[in-house]
Every structure is written in structure tokens, then in C-alpha cells.
Amino acid sequence: MASYVHERSRFNLEDNEMPTQWYNVQADLAHPIAPYLGPDGSLADAEALAAIFPEPLIEQEISTQRWFDIPGPVLDVLHTYRPGPLNRARMFEKALGLPDNVHIYYKYEGINASGSHKANTAIPQAYYNKISGITKLATETGAGQWGSALSMAGAQLGIEVEVFMVGVSYDQKPYRRIFMESFGATVHRSPTTLTEAGRAMLEKDPDTLGSLGLAISEAVEVAAASPDTNYALGSVLNHVCLHQTIIGQEAIKQMELAGEEPDVVIACVGGGSNFAGLAFPYYLRRKEGKTGARLLAVEPKACPSLTHGSFEYDFGDEAKLTPQMMMYTLGHDFVPPGIHAGGLRYHGDSPLISQLVHENEIEATAVYQKDVFAAALEFARAEALLPAPESSHAIAAAIAEAKAAAEAGEPRTILFGLSGHGFLDLAAYENYINGKLQDYDFATGAVVG
Ligand SMILES: *Cc1c(COP(=O)(O)O)cnc(C)c1O
């Protein structure tokens, strides 16, 4: 043992080193994002948003102020699980057979009970609604992580939660429903007969698997109909991206502890919030001339809005109840195939990320789900951490980056966001292990294997 040299793998922060402000990328865009439009195409004003969101969140949505102080009561709840870990994946590097000059780091967001980064915005959203006199939040959930996070935050901050869960996830993930109910939430399989949007869809297609866009329509309808009920969205919107920026701020400090600067920062993209959370603080750092890090967004080949969508105005939901946003979109009526990364089955993308992709500040790539699960298991077996299928898109891209660097004989430091754990995604892992997963390619419309 005399020759053993301890090499550090974990770069953790003290409690009091957690960020106390959120970073608003809107302060640093070369061109401001296009304004939201109402259903009739006219400018959507703050008043229209006020029917479903509290005033402080609307301010964050449209502001170009660079920093927002995180309220004390929000910090108190965030402190139950933050600061979060940043690890160097030494065992994974070894398993991949990487040379000494190719390093992989990951920032892990699966440490709270709901298991993903979504708690980071669920908590401030519950807080701002609560102090604005709202008693109930209606929301949708795709894979179940957002509903879980909001249920948890609702329990912690004392606000009721009603969840419309996308049908395919409701069927595939009973434990997610039970999780939400354990924290006191009411959960419906979407589409329901409780809303006009739901009834219209069921009439059109009684066997529908549901979609995130449709579940959003249902929740927005419920929120708009009642003055003490608001709507909460777990991704896409600017205030959600804002709340997630504690991830990247922590990562920057932790990479400094590790004594390295990433060459590339990678995260998966559904609506874009975990990517924004990790990447936007690095975007600022690049503006400040402190890093040259590339920012790489990863999406599924079956639902590739950034790499195959159009950059145009579209609705956030199936029934066209939300404002129209300028974003990369596959169309609000696109129902993605039932791939096993439910959190990435969304037709659109964050307007902020869309804008930055459009301006070539952010790169995007798409991967097949079987490659994603292969990457997930390779990572799991090396690092003893079971990643969410969504997060594993980032792992697949990190492997590709590492191998490309190794082949080129170049040094590379890779940082990826591991947005959540996969403990409640075991059915998907089972399907993969038993060879039951299919790969779809949106671009060609084909099942490719
Ligand atoms: C919801 C979710 C995603 C996708 O949402 P984004 O807003 O794009 O981050 C990714 N990973 C996990 C674990 C999720 O729960």
C-alpha cells in the first residue's frame, strides 16, 4: 500500500458556499428574446400572465436584471439538500480506457427525494405563490419528476398541488404517482374528462398516450378558472431557467476546487431547464473571458426540437392556451413516440436556449435511446450511481466527446450535468436489458432498430 496515492474525486462545498443569487441570462444576450404573443398574435402583456402566475415570477420572467437575490425562506428549504455534489468520474474514465489527459466530471442533481434538479425551481415557485395568497398549484408532469418535485415543495411550504400526469408515464410509472400522493398531491391520468382540452382529445383519440403539451393545457385550464389556483411549469420558461442557475454557479466553484476548467459543458434538454442551470453561468463566464467552454445540448433523436425543429413562434401546449413563444419547435400538436425518457418528450424548447442556439452560442446534438441506455449502464457500473434516462443523454454525449478527444490525442476536460437518478425508471432499464427498446428517428420518420 505504500505506493497508494489518493486522488480526489469529490469536490464539495460547505453549506454557506451555496449561491445566494440567481443569474438571469437575459441581461447578457446579444439580442433580447422575442416577446410572447397572445392567441390572437398580439403582444401578451403581464396581465395575461397574471391569470396563472404570481407577480414576482412574472417579473423574473421578463426582467433583464442580471442577479436576483434568493429569498431567505427559499434558501432554508434549498439547504435541506444543497449545495450539491460535483464528482470526477475516475472509475468511469478507467472503464472507458481514456488517456490521462481526458477527464470527465459530473454535477449531480439527484440527491433530493424527488430525484432531480426540478426541486430547485419547485421550491421558489411554491414560495412565491404562497406569499401571493395562492392556495393551490395545478401542474402537468411528464415522466413524473416535476410533479414529484412540486408535491415535495408544496408539502414543505404549505400549498396544495394537483397534477395532470401524461398517460404513458402514469401507466409506466406507478411509483411516481405514489410518491406524489405520499407528499399529499392529487394525481390524474391525462387526458382527463375534467377539462375541455382533455375531453376534446379523448373524443379525437380515446387511446391516446397523452402528451406533455396536452397535460399543460389541462393544468392551465384549471388554473385560469379559479382565482386562488395558479399554474406552475417545471421547465421552458425564463424564470424556471433562472432558478436552476444555482447548479452552474456551484459547478464553477467546484471545478475551481478541482483546479480545472471544462472545455465542454454538456446537459440533456427536454424543455431546457437543467441545461440552462448548468450552462448559463458558464455562458457568463465565457463573456467575462474566464473560460472557453463549449456548451452542448443533447436531445433524443425521437424528439429533436433543437436539431430538427423550426425556430418560430409556437404555443407551449396542445390546446393553444399558453402564449406563443419564439423557440425551436416540432409543432404544438406533435405527439412524440413513447420513448423511455419521458422528461425529454416535449415539442418545444426554452426560448432562451433556442435564441442562444440560433446565435451559435450553444451547440446541439441528438442521440438514440439505445445508445443512451448503453451509456447509462456503463456509467452505473463504473460509478455505482443509477442515472435517470434523461440525464443519460448527457452521458452518451460525454462518452462521444471523450472518445473523440482520445482518438485525436487531445487533452479534454468534460463537465456534464447528471440531472437526476433513475431509481424510479427501472421498468425502462428492464425493457432495455430485455431488448425491448426501439430507436426512432424523427428526421427520417423511421424505426431504425
Ligand atoms: C425533467 C427532467 C429533464 C428534462 O427537463 P429540462 O427542463 O430539459 O431539464 C432532464 N432530466 C431529468 C432527470 C428530469 O427530471
Please explain how this structure is put together:
- The chain has 449 residues and is of the alpha/beta class.
- It has helices spanning 46-50, 55-62, 72-78, 90-95, 119-131, 145-157, 167-172, 174-182, 196-204, 212-224, 238-244, 246-258, 273-287, 305-308, 351-358, 369-383, 389-408, 426-433; strands at 21-23, 67-69, 86-88, 102-108, 136-141, 160-166, 186-190, 229-231, 264-268, 294-300, 310-315, 324-329, 363-367, 412-418, 440-441, 446-447.
- The protein has 18 helices and 16 strands.
- β5, α6 (145-157) and β6 (160-166) form a beta-alpha-beta unit.
- The radius of gyration is 21 Å and the shape is globular.
- 40% of the residues lie in helices and 17% in strands.
- Pyridoxal-5'-phosphate (PLP) is lined by residues 116, 118, 143, 145-146, 235, 268-275, 343-344, 388, 390-391, 419-420.
- Pyridoxal-5'-phosphate (PLP) binds at residues 116, 118, 143, 145-146, 235, 268-275, 343-344, 388, 390-391, 419-420.
The side-by-side strand order for the widest beta sheet comes to: 3-4-14-9-10-13
* Terminal CA distance: 48 Å
- Residues in helices, as a percent range: 25-40%
Structural class: alpha/beta
Strand content: 15-25%
- Write out the distinct hetero groups bound to the structure: pyridoxal-5'-phosphate
Low-confidence stretches: none
Tally the beta strands: 16
List the total number of helices.
18
Mean pLDDT level: 94
Give the overall form. globular
Outline the biggest β-sheet: 6 strands, mixed
Radius of gyration: 21 Å
